[in-house]
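Q:
Got a chain?
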Amino acid sequence: MAAPNTIHTQQRTTLRDVFFILFRQKRKMSVFFLTVVIAVTLATLTAPSIYRSDALILIRLGKESVAMDPSVASSFDPIVSVGQSRDAELLSEIEILKSRELAEQVVEQFGPGAYLAPDPEDAAGEGLISFTVRKLNELQRSFSKQAGDVVLDEEINPMEDDAITQFSEGLLIELNKKSNIISVSFESFHPRLAKDSLTTLLDRFLDKHIEVNQVSGSLDFFERERTKSLEAVTVTEDKLRVLMRENAVSSYKDDQFFLAKQLDTLELSLKEAQHQHAESSARLASLEKDLDHLPMQIPTEIKSGLPNLTANNMRQELFDLRIQEQRLLGKYEADSVPVLSIREEIAKAEAMLQAEAPSLTESSEGVNTVHQTVLTNMYQERATEKALKARLEELRELVGTTRTELQKLVDLGVEVSRLERDLALNEANYRTYAESYEQARINRAQETERLSNISYVQMPTLPVEPLRPKRLLNLALGLFLAFFGSLTLAFIAEFLDSSFKKPEEIEGYLEIPVFASISIPGKAGRSSVNPVKVRVQQIKDSWDIPIPTRNQYYNLRDTLVAASRKLGGKHCFQITSCNAGEGVTTTTANLGFTLTSGGEDRVLLVDGNLRDPELHRIFKLDEGPGLLDLLTTSKPDWRAMVKPTPVKNLDLLPAGRLKNELTFLTEARLYETDAFLEALQAWKEKYDYVLIDSPPAAVNSSSIALAGKADAVLWVIQAEYVRQPVAKYVHELLTRENAVILGSVFNKRQFHIPRWLYRYL
């Protein structure tokens, strides 16, 4: 288990930590910096110069037959048609410029070597070789044809294919935004070759542009079809003209419109006449009915009394109301509001008439005026009814005639529409053939005069200065990349390094205190002395090691003694590590010397590293008999095996001479024997401190077994060597054996920052 005075620390990154990382990783940084600088410098100095020739071409919207150049407009009749959209047309031209066919033509003219070799002389030689090989192949194919042999397709020359690929990679084509200008550039090793290649490419592009925009077909074919279409148009127009003249119409649609409107008016008049005739017939029937009920003579004078004029007037009003009822029945239905209203008045009049006396006492007879009035009205209504009937017959005849004429106009319209469709179709064919004929005529003129809607805004330029490499810029970027790349590499390497680099990291990660930090003797930041070789074999009566290192071991002694007092009594300390070579033996020997110096304490050093003992060599003593003999023999006498060292009060129990027998033994079980436990108790009684040098705990199980028998464990951790996961694993093994980890020694610590800089941080 851990010591009770475990220290928890929270580290804060300072400028000193940053410089610690940089100076610790300075070798990696220097190698990376020099590698990048040298690589960029060599690449810049050895890279061939690249020259670029630029050109600008203008693509006028529409093909040549759509928008002719003003200089040739006087020789050709302009034809307007719908062209492609701007983007589609410009992208089509760019694809033609990028085509492999044009690249093959340019490479064939200058030779593949011109695009593969940076040296002009090499390019000329390669071009001559390629030209010679091509001519020999052509002669061979010619002889084969003459001999009647089967001639296979021309094989692809790898050198020529590479040259075409190189040419395509050096060609840059861009479309300027919101304009019809295409920027064309070509990069090459030679300025003259860049210009000539770009000029040749644009010339071939112009020829290819004219070729792909030609209209297929011959000029005679379009002329013949245009004549046939014109004749068909003339025949159809004559038929349409004769048809209109025979039917005496100028515009059948207008006549049809007016005739239909007239028919609507006549049908409306016919309906109105039918309605009026029905009303007149109804009134006539009502008058005839009333006339049958009226006498021609009525009493005019009665001697017995005066005539009742009120009743007569009421009868007259009743008659008038009935006449009005008949008229309303001619216009409205029987249950309509006007008819019901007049009938209500008639009922009231009849009721009032019944209340009056039927006759007077004195009356006289005469002509019935009501009868005369009804008779007169009947004759008038009969005349009106005959007139309306005649009007009705006349309107019916007019409606029938108008419908017949309208049907004729409809039939005429169908025929005229058919002829107009034929005329429109023939006119469309005529226009199509006329446009195609004009296009073919212009294309023939283009082939002769090389007319095009493409113009040069800027001819290919002859470059003077190379486009790249930009040596100063490359060197500056190389230095920038080397500097910041080395910094990045240093921090990445530090991040990936999980070893302990400072004592605070041990206290924070393993939660055990650090008793001493032992640095490497020599200059700060440089491992000039191997601490494994810094041993006390040179010491007989004095401790001959550098003073700074000696002081650090004194600090270790004082801290260990202070910590051991809390445990009480005499103690046996096991000194171990995670891996071999971390300085356990050196720490054990030096700690034993410091514990005996300046006092009366007796110290026993036990070499528990049975497979690779070192303590007897440090003190120049025999290796046996020792601990292994003590553990494997019966009734051993450990006192006879302990050897005094040249240092006062410091004794050594070596590992022993029976190392060959370890092959058949389990070291961990040796520490479980009664002989070892009895010897351990005897050592503690005789000596004040017992220091056991044990093998690495991560690779030797005997060290873990021994940790459970010792009073406490002193853990030696080498700086910048032991990885934190490994240390955590060893810590768990020791804790599992109930070992008391008293503290640790941070060994072989290096101070990477120079002293002159360390003072200012």
Notes: The CA atoms of residues 289 and 591 lie 159 Å apart.
